[in-house]
Recover the amino acids of this structure.
């Protein structure tokens, strides 16, 4: 057992901190909403700045312009960015899709997209869910038909994060309708702006737009933009969803710690009923307990990351840890609202809003976290079946 | 960052698991819980032959040269078996104090016999206030003076050869080793629901001899703090082991117990309970390992220990209660081992500081005024 970071890893951490001092996160323009996951708002400018440092491609193979830095560097980068509250929203998508392109993509796809992804010039959205395929994703109905040098896509995708301001979508569609549900699926990289592709914003309960519904009407995708092999999209999807749960939540622990620290300061400096809130024994206990929960979360994610790094199987870890991350986030946001009391609901912009009105925003966004990327119910079942070997519940007819 | 155990640690864990599986069935644990003596003499001899009581002791003093991480892993297995013994008090707490604060003469006098398992020590700290803090120590004990009064919740005092009595003296706190069978020492059993053997130790005119003082006079608390942290981590390891065993019992039961035509483990309600139990077991384990590693590496670890103990006292108890829900009526029976594991977690959660006291340490560490 060894829980320390190496000297090189520490030095890299220092580099990131220096970068963040040189480029204060609040100075970057933001064009997409912060969905509360811990990766902040969607900022192209910030992404490009990360690209300038070479950090978007640092773990890629050298032949694609990477530096082949060890896996742990990515964890450190995410942890530091989240700790600083930086707007690195699109980073996860860029990283995940780039990895998929390196692994499954055609030469043309690699040449077209990887250099731009490394510079932070392009961002990606995921097109998996459909109006009638949520937790039961295999019910998806979007089709892709091979036609000459292209595939032609038709259908509808939903809950696509920042699809309206992204550059490319990763869209799963049915290429073989005659095959069993889990076969005959394929993954495509679809450029925004392609005729027939229309993202429509979905305004969330927060008042902001994070998700889109994407309509695909006779959308032509070059056949080289098929990611991987035809009809084998489901295997890729499964691997992708699992790593997505890990990468999409790894930075939650440091992001929550940042919020917790802000609540500690608030409790120290806010007098209620004649004494600082921090002196209220219930408040002390709740905050201390959450600090502990966050540290537990952090360790579970580091172990999860270590298993991935070692190439060891993670049949249930990412599912289990995602549930914990999102439920811990809900707990912290709810506690924040409780501490702030009447001031809690005040939105950003009010001179009376504590912590820039962020807590009410976080509180609202956390309602979506235990739904997106696998509901907590579906994932608990995954943990029970794949992690503990419990028998599957009999399935309904499909 | 590396979560892998060394080969030697893997071997230790497997040896311990097999050993306790063979020699410490829960039927024996149940029998010992009901028995007044309640100490598995034969098993203690066997673990002594394996060198476990001396795991923290250097080989020069007849120990087995193990590390703190080794002993944490071993105690996790003891927890899994619900092994009842004074192991933590003797092989972790009193041993660590002798190693860190004892003079060379004291180490040579006490540690080889403790390493061989022939002598056992235990800690007599708490008084009526039940607080663990220097200001909570009221019993007087200057060098050359005499001890009078009661210590409460002293574990396994009936089989201990030495009581490490924490007293107020010489302008601070003194740590005094008292031989249990000397005149003036009376043990009154405190029967508790766990079946752990706890005692009120009544001291009457017991002399404080300089050669029995551990650490500098009046500076005992400073010596005791890191040792109490070790005790807390050891109890955490025990809780993780108990919780893991509860998970194993629940999962194997849920696979075979059928209701309404299918195993109960095929119902989502049970699946989700089991998934949450797993999350608490693993979360507890890794926060424990991190705290233990920091202590092992000699890094500042007070907050990590407090977090681990605070978290585990609640998370593992939650596991135990959920275990009752998953197992249904059978878990309510004395013949089923669940209650033994549950009660062990309950006892361990209170030892070396309860969740509330550790959370206060965390509250200060995160900067609350």
């Amino acid at each position: 057992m060894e829980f320390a970071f190496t000297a090189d890893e520490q030095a890299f951490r220092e580099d990131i901190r220096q970068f963040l001092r040189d480029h204060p996160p609040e100075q970057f323009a933001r064009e997409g909403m912060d969905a509360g996951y811990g990766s902040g708002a969607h900022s192209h400018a910030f992404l490009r700045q990360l690209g300038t440092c070479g950090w978007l491609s640092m773990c890629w193979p050298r032949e694609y312009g990477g530096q082949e830095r060890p896996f742990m560097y990515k964890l450190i980068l995410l942890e530091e960015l989240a700790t600083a509250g930086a707007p690195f929203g699109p980073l996860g998508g860029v990283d995940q899709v780039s990895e998929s392109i390196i692994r499954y993509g055609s030469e043309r796809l690699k040449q077209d997209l990887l250099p731009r992804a490394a510079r932070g010039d392009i961002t990606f959205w995921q097109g998996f869910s459909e109006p009638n395929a949520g937790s039961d994703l295999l019910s998806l109905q979007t089709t892709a038909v091979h036609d000459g040098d292209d595939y032609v896509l038709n259908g509808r995708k939903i809950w696509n994060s920042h699809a309206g301001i992204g550059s490319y979508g990763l869209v799963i569609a049915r290429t073989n309708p005659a095959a069993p549900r889990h076969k005959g699926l394929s993954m495509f990289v679809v450029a925004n702006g392609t005729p027939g592709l229309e993202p429509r914003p979905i305004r969330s309960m927060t008042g902001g737009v994070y998700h889109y519904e994407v309509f695909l009407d006779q959308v032509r995708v070059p056949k080289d933009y098929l990611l991987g092999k035809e009809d084998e999209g489901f295997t890729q999807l499964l691997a992708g969803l699992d790593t997505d749960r890990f990468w999409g939540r790894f930075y939650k622990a440091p992001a929550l710690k940042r919020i917790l620290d802000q609540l500690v300061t608030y409790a120290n400096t806010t007098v209620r009923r004649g004494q600082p809130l921090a002196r209220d024994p219930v408040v002390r206990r709740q905050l201390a307990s959450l600090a502990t929960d966050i540290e537990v979360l952090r360790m579970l994610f580091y172990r999860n990351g270590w298993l991935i790094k070692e190439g060891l199987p993670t049949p249930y870890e990412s599912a289990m840890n995602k549930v914990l991350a999102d439920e811990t986030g809900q707990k912290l946001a709810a506690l924040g609202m409780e501490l702030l009391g009447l001031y809690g609901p005040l939105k950003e912009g009010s001179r009376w809003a504590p912590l820039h009105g962020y807590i009410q925003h976080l509180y609202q966004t956390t309602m979506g976290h235990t739904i997106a990327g696998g509901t907590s119910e579906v994932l608990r079942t995954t943990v029970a079946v794949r992690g503990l070997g419990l028998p599957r519940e009999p399935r309904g007819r499909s | 960052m590396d979560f892998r155990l060394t080969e030697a640690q893997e071997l230790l864990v497997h040896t311990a698991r097999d050993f306790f599986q063979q020699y410490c069935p829960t039927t024996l644990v149940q029998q010992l819980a009901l028995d007044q003596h309640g100490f598995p003499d034969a098993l203690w001899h066997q673990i002594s032959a394996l060198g476990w009581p001396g795991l923290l002791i250097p080989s020069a003093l007849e120990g087995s040269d193990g590390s703190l991480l080794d002993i944490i892993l071993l105690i996790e297995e003891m927890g899994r078996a619900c092994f009842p013994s004074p192991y933590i008090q003797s092989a972790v707490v009193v041993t660590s104090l002798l190693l860190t604060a004892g003079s060379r003469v004291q180490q040579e006098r006490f540690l080889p016999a403790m390493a061989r398992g022939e002598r056992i020590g235990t800690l007599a700290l708490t008084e009526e206030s039940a607080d663990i803090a220097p200001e909570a120590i009221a019993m007087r004990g200057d060098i050359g003076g005499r001890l009078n009064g009661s210590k409460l919740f002293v574990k396994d005092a009936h089989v201990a050869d030495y009581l490490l009595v924490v007293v107020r003296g010489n302008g601070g706190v003194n740590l005094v080793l008292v031989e249990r069978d000397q005149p003036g020492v009376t043990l009154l059993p405190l029967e508790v629901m766990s079946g752990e053997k706890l005692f009120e130790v009544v001291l009457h005119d017991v002399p404080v001899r300089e050669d029995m003082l551990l650490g500098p006079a009046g500076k005992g608390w400073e010596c005791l703090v890191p040792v109490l942290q070790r005790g807390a981590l050891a109890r955490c390891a025990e809780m993780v082991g108990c919780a893991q065993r509860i998970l194993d019992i629940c999962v194997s039961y849920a696979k075979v117990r059928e209701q309404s035509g299918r195993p109960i483990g095929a119902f989502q309600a049970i699946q989700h309970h089991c998934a949450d139990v797993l999350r608490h077991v693993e979360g507890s384990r890794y926060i424990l390992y991190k705290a233990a590693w920091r202590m092992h590496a000699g890094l500042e670890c007070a907050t990590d220990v407090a977090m681990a103990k605070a978290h585990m006292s609640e998370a593992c108890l939650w596991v135990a209660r959920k275990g009752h829900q998953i197992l249904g009526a059978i878990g309510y029976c004395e013949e089923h081992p669940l209650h033994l594991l549950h009660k062990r977690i309950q006892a361990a959660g209170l030892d070396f500081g309860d969740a509330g006291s550790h959370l206060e340490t965390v509250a200060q560490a995160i900067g609350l005024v």
